[in-house]
# Entry
Amino acid sequence: MLGRWDRTGTRIPQVGYFERAAMRVIVDAIRAGLGKEHAMADRILVVDDDELICDLVSETLNFEGFEVETAFSGEQALRMLEYARPHLILLDIMMSGINGFEVCRIILNNPATREIPIIFLTAKGQFEDELRGYEEGAFDYITKPFHPLTLAPTIRETLEAYNHQDLEEKRQRRIEKLRGLLNPHHLRESERRV
# Structure
């Protein structure tokens, strides 16, 4: 008879080539200390015209188990999104050509890409800039200089959010908080409404 038998005499069914390959991926992931949800790497698109930043972010995220693609301009990122769908986009604001705000708007207005979460990674650190980033549709905002080890937890938190609505609620709370910091009168008005 074909097949294998375990110690109790129970027949172990034969496994086909593709099933075996899939099982090998899962076993290797488990041995590497990863859960099933991380057996396939999350794809991150890093968009920044500074090659050094792209290299630093790519190396950091690759080390953390992410698959990383880089684009050195907004135009290049939009071309890449025509054929590739990352799970998340890290986007600089100040770039030559199309700036990050405009790239964000284009991505969120396209039905094929509007569900991709965007995190701004930028040197623009004023409250007004951060508020605009959230208002444009970003789910998080990281200012440069940044510690490379803070990237992976921020990305994982965004990717592991229960659903898009949770991210949207978090983004709206952040907008209200920033508006309150910029305009204390606005914060008092929103507290009265609650």
